[in-house]
């Protein structure tokens, strides 16, 4: 039998178990975390098992994607166009995700309920000073956005040494941001259980911090790929997607700083 000749530029992926296993792992993680938050027995261990499974499945799934893009040549211009639209739509969904937290914050702060005293911030909440760690973290994220753009330009120009340096700086700045945010949480005199202010503050800033961790991991994988010569001046969408995600994280933080830290603490 003669081999079939592909007469289109699209990638018809081989059958893979990873989407199904990723869905099961995500369901296990979510169910376990819900059980843990409601103090059910075994909730923590179910969350841990689901999270480890999700990370493992993601590793093998993305390994296959890297192999298809770098070594098998399946990511043609048509495929890259589809991937770009997919990443853009994913970021749009993330915008909607954070919009819910901003909606909750402004609904609670612009018209404070009588149950919390009718004022914002609620009585008993000693808000964090926005001109200390939050301002420093703002400068760190803005600087990381600049170094990320530097890395992108260096890849386009074929300056591999500058790309490695700037991308490493971006990852280090992301780690510094996470460390400072952890210290801020440790020193805060309120918790997620302290009414609507604590809930909105820790959900909004905490999920942003989680996105910083995801973005840092994304960029670290790109650093490893860059070190292994996976990117060329014309073929580096993996890094472009990471850069778009990182800039999105930067923009969300600016809104968080202005609304929750500064305006919300007046």
From TrEMBL:
The chain crosses the membrane at residues 43-62, 83-106, 133-151, 163-180, 200-224, 244-264. Keywords: Membrane, Mitochondrion, Translocase, Transmembrane, Transmembrane helix. GO terms for biological process: mitochondrial electron transport, cytochrome c to oxygen. It comes from the Eukaryota. GO terms for cellular component: mitochondrion; organelle envelope; organelle membrane; respiratory chain complex IV. It is found in: Membrane. Gene3D superfamilies: 1.10.287.70, Cytochrome c oxidase, subunit III, four-helix bundle. GO terms for molecular function: cytochrome-c oxidase activity. It holds the Pfam family COX3. It is a multi-pass membrane protein. Its main location: membrane. Residues 6-265 form the Heme-copper oxidase subunit III family profile domain. Component of the cytochrome c oxidase, the last enzyme in the mitochondrial electron transport chain which drives oxidative phosphorylation. The respiratory chain contains 3 multisubunit complexes succinate dehydrogenase (complex II, CII), ubiquinol-cytochrome c oxidoreductase (cytochrome b-c1 complex, complex III, CIII) and cytochrome c oxidase (complex IV, CIV), that cooperate to transfer electrons derived from NADH and succinate to molecular oxygen, creating an electrochemical gradient over the inner membrane that drives transmembrane transport and the ATP synthase. Belongs to the cytochrome c oxidase subunit 3 family. This is Cytochrome c oxidase subunit 3. It comes from Cryptomonas curvata.
